[in-house]
Design brief:
Helices cover about 45% and strands about 5% of the residues. The protein is built from 32 helices and 16 strands. It has a 4-stranded mixed beta sheet. It has a 4-stranded mixed beta sheet with strand order 6-12-13-11. Helix 3 crosses helix 20, helix 27 crosses helix 28 and helix 28 crosses helix 31. The two termini are about 35 Å apart. About 20% of the residues have low confidence.
Length: about 900
């Protein structure tokens, strides 16, 4: 350390010089921090990375760069095994991993269109009739569903295990909608299925919110579609993939505060064309008499004389030939839905829609001049989603034709095959229409509506909701136990089961049979048979992480080293304790928390634990072997065979956990997340903040850098997670992680007041209109899916700063960085912003605003800063400056 020309102490260590260089490269010093702090902190980074959005809709330092850095290390380790003791390399976990990874990399058997492996696999299924005429007497819906569930398939619904929200010490059975349970989407991703619990995730997920999507490499898939899920950062996977589900229904919980009005009411321009519903623009009504797929008297194909067309009574199916397989869209007058070719892209679809919308308005304006309307971003989003959904149905149709080229019927009877195809696709189309929509699920999560009383049912109630399934038999076969009336089953979106019941009642068994096989093949088998990916080596790495997270963690930790882990754990634990003290001070000062409310709030903070870096169990190869002992691999197996064995064992191991006590360490570090995951989250069920080792790298963590940088990043993220314990869903959960709704209605009203204030700040400063080639799109904000994240955002920075000041008071004032004229307080705020540097084109922003529970990063950074008075003090902003609003909004003073 030395003094600069002004006599100010400057840190000249290697870490400080590197940190200064990185901060300076990311900044745009020509921008005014009091007008646009995101541009000031991130303008240089955006300029250098803007070109990368040619291939990705969304590009972010924390979402794209950091995971790629970790993946580079893992790729090297999978080849070299550097640091791993030689005696471990011959153990079963390492042998299994090596075989799986090497077979995946061997592309000689991954020929597109080759269905031989798939046909062979399906022919061996006991409950399906593949390669022979369908016999209705041999078909049992429950047994067929059970067989696919045991092989990790969930074509119409999933039955899995969840941490019991009413008793966090045990697991309960959960029933949910269909799952796309492939190696990437379903084995271990955070929005996947399996052993789940309530976790509030820090970063964006590659998710399916019933879903997903989102820790990598857990032994079991983690289910996050509950009331206690949220993330801090926007997900590039969401923007790039746009993999939504379809339509949803939700119930309302009377004692959970609802959003204060419709967000569009605050942001709408009178000239904006909106969807008819802000929250659910494609609501599908229950099936009625006209929705019958075929007559109940229709005989299944292949049972009568095959030369007699009339013997099959297929007239109801012929009627389907004139029925579109594409769901209709609820778009406002003047907005045209667009059918695109398979190679069209979202921007082309949107531009075409805008152009046609403008042409429609021009036609009406011939009679009377009207002011040009601006298109709501939701209209644009719905158009693109409809196009994407149509392409998924087209892909499923192609799978059907590849799977059943002759449908076991005479080649001469092409008309009959066409009708069977139409019936099967009609069932699949209707199934996807009645599935819960991702947006509605997000709203239900944010508002705490998933855990309605009607979601907790007995086995008798479950039978009444979906009587076509023999639930007692299914659960007994899946979990090797009988279930009594006293045991509670959790049902996600009960309305879906009622609609599914109607759909099944109006569909012939043979159509359901073919639909099961088609969906399972499309969503699970094809990925393993011939993966379709632009980067096959990356595909192999990701599926290996998902399937073998524990052994990869063992390998990764040997690379990192135990000393590094111990030092990291001690450092971060001290930061967390300082943060907890600051939050406790806020809780004790809050005049809206009194009596039992304050007692519970204090208990939640004091009992909060920090899980940092990794579990010590990952060093133990005996523990790691627990996830491998059921696997039966051999060198002559293909990658497809290995993948199906992984699917089988995954379900078998999950089922063995029912009625077993929950091990906290395993639940967090094996079932939920792995040390190599760039992520961080609050786990409500164990009241823990989890911070994996991979999270601790620049720009989040500077190992030997100044503490004001680490408090600006790590402490701010951690404060955000702590504050989730006091959002709409956090207030439903007590310090034991159980759904007891411990807080009073008066306390919850304080959330409404804070959120209303914060939303007013957002709408006053961040409503924009984006220009596209054929028109303008309003980028209105929507509090319905960002409410909990906004509440945590509103208070995270001030608590992190106070925690740093607590550290500084007990240690020493730190020197500033070389080459930067900024005092330490300004560097704290710059450090807090730069992990969110991102390039977000307007089209990507439309996806993020509709799908992600966080504000887009540029809006989010500026909103957090302007809501923190200490920021404007540090940068000496003047009254009237954009970043110094008159009113700021705080849950805690």
């Amino acid at each position: 350390m030395k003094k600069d020309v002004c006599g100010v102490d400057v840190c000249l260590t290697e870490e400080c010089v590197h940190a200064a260089s990185e901060l300076l490269k990311a900044m745009d010093s020509t921008a005014d921090p009091c007008q646009d702090f995101f541009q000031y902190a991130c303008g240089g980074w955006v300029k250098r990375h803007k070109h990368k959005t040619r291939d990705e809709l969304f590009y972010s330092v924390n979402q794209n760069l950091l995971p790629k850095q970790v993946d580079f290390v893992l790729n090297e380790l999978l080849v070299t095994k550097e640091g791993v003791p030689k005696e471990l390399l011959t153990t079963k976990p390492y042998r299994d991993l090596d075989l799986f990874y090497s077979k995946c990399l061997d592309t000689s058997h991954h020929e597109a269109g080759d269905m031989e492996q798939v046909h062979t696999f399906l022919s061996n299924l006991k409950e399906f009739q593949v390669g022979r005429p369908f016999q209705p007497k041999s078909w049992d819906l429950t047994k067929a569903l059970m067989e696919l569930l045991k092989l990790n398939g969930a074509p119409i619904l999933d039955v899995s295990l969840e941490v019991d929200v009413k008793n966090a010490s045990r697991l309960t059975i959960a029933v949910s909608g269909p799952e796309r349970t492939g190696l990437l989407s379903g084995l271990a991703t955070v929005g996947g299925r399996g052993v789940g619990h309530r976790a509030v995730y820090r970063d964006g997920r590659q998710r399916d919110p019933r879903t997903e999507r989102r820790s990598h490499g857990g032994r079991f898939k983690h289910h996050t579609t509950d009331a206690f899920t949220g993330t801090i950062d926007a997900s590039p996977g969401d923007a790039a993939d746009a993999n939504l589900n379809y339509v949803s229904i939700s119930s309302k919980v009377s004692d959970v505060p609802q959003p204060m009005g419709n967000s569009n009411d605050n942001s709408r321009s009178p000239n904006v064309v909106h969807s008819p519903s802000s929250g659910n623009s494609n609501t599908i009504q229950p099936l009625g008499e006209n929705d019958n797929i075929n007559s109940a008297d229709t005989q299944p194909p292949g049972n009568a004389d095959e030369d007699s067309e009339s013997s099959h009574d297929l007239q109801p199916l012929r009627n389907l030939l004139s029925t579109t397989l594409r769901p209709t869209s609820d778009l406002p007058p003047g907005t045209t839905t667009v059918t695109t070719t398979s190679n069209s892209n979202p921007s082309e679809v949107m531009d075409t829609a805008l152009e046609e919308n403008n042409e429609a308005k021009e036609d009406t304006s011939l009679a009377k001049p009207v002011k040009e309307k601006i298109i709501s971003r939701r209209v644009v989003y719905n158009i693109i989603e409809e196009d994407k959904n149509e392409k998924r149905l087209d892909a499923i149709a192609s799978t059907f034709h590849d799977l059943f080229p002759n449908i076991t019927l005479p080649r001469s009877n092409a008309r009959e095959r066409e009708l069977i195809f139409a019936a099967t696709m009609r069932f699949i189309t209707l199934l996807e229409e009645i599935m819960p929509d991702e947006r509605e699920q997000l709203e239900a999560q944010q508002q705490g509506r998933l855990y309605h009383d009607t979601s907790f049912v007995s086995i008798t109630s479950l039978v009444s909701q979906l009587p076509q399934i023999d639930w007692r038999y299914l659960i007994r076969e899946l979990y090797n136990t009988s279930i009594n009336e006293q045991e509670t089953i959790f049902v996600y979106f009960p309305e879906y089961l009622r609609r599914l019941s109607t759909l099944l009642d109006n569909t012939e068994p043979w159509a359901i049979h073919y639909a099961f096989l088609t969906l399972y093949t499309h969503d699970v088998l094809l990925e393993a048979a011939h993966p379709q990916t632009n980067d096959h080596s990356d595909f192999c790495l990701q599926v290996s992480k998902n399937a073998f997270g524990d052994v990869i963690s063992n390998m990764y930790l040997h690379h990192v080293g135990n000393t590094t882990l111990r030092n990291l754990r001690a450092h971060v634990q001290s930061m967390v304790e300082n943060l907890k003290e600051e939050v406790l001070d806020s809780v004790r000062r809050a005049d809206w928390l009194e009596g039992e409310d304050q007692w519970e709030a204090v208990q939640k903070v004091t009992s909060l634990q920090a899980e940092v870096a990794a579990s010590d169990r990952h060093w133990d190869i005996t523990y790691v072997n627990e996830s491998h002992k059921e696997l039966s691999f051999s060198a002559n197996m293909s990658f497809f065979d290995l993948a199906m064995e992984v699917h089988r064992v995954f379900r078998k191991e999950m089922s063995s956990l029912y009625h077993q006590p929950i091990d906290r360490d395993t639940l967090i570090w094996s079932f939920t997340i792995q040390p190599f995951t760039v992520n961080a989250f609050l786990d409500q069920s164990t009241n823990s903040i989890v911070l994996p080792e991979a999270f601790f790298r620049p720009p989040y963590y500077w190992e030997r850098g100044p503490e004001y940088l680490n408090y600006g990043t790590i402490a701010t993220s951690t404060a955000h997670e702590i504050l989730h314990t006091f959002d709409y869903t956090g207030m439903m959960v007590d310090h034991r992680g159980e759904l007891s709704r411990p807080f009073s209605s008066e306390a919850r009203r304080q959330l409404n007041n804070t959120l209303s204030c914060y939303n007013a700040l957002l709408h006053a400063n961040f409503y924009t209109e984006a220009k596209f080639e054929h028109g303008m799109v309003s980028m209105e904000l929507d509090q319905n899916i960002t409410m909990n994240e906004n509440l945590a955002d509103a208070g995270e920075l001030v608590h992190a700063l106070r925690a740093y000041e607590r550290w500084e008071a007990s240690h020493y004032p730190e020197p500033r960085l070389p080459g930067l004229p900024h005092p330490t307080r300004q560097l704290f705020f710059i450090a807090a912003a730069q992990p969110y540097c991102s390039v977000i084109p307007d089209l990507a922003k439309i996806f993020l605003m509709e799908k992600d529970e966080h504000l887009p990063n540029d809006i989010r950074v500026n909103a957090i800063m302007m809501n923190t008075p200490e920021f404007s003090e540090a940068f000496k902003c003047s009254p009237g400056d954009r970043m110094k609003p008159v009113t700021t909004c705080h849950l805690f003073s």
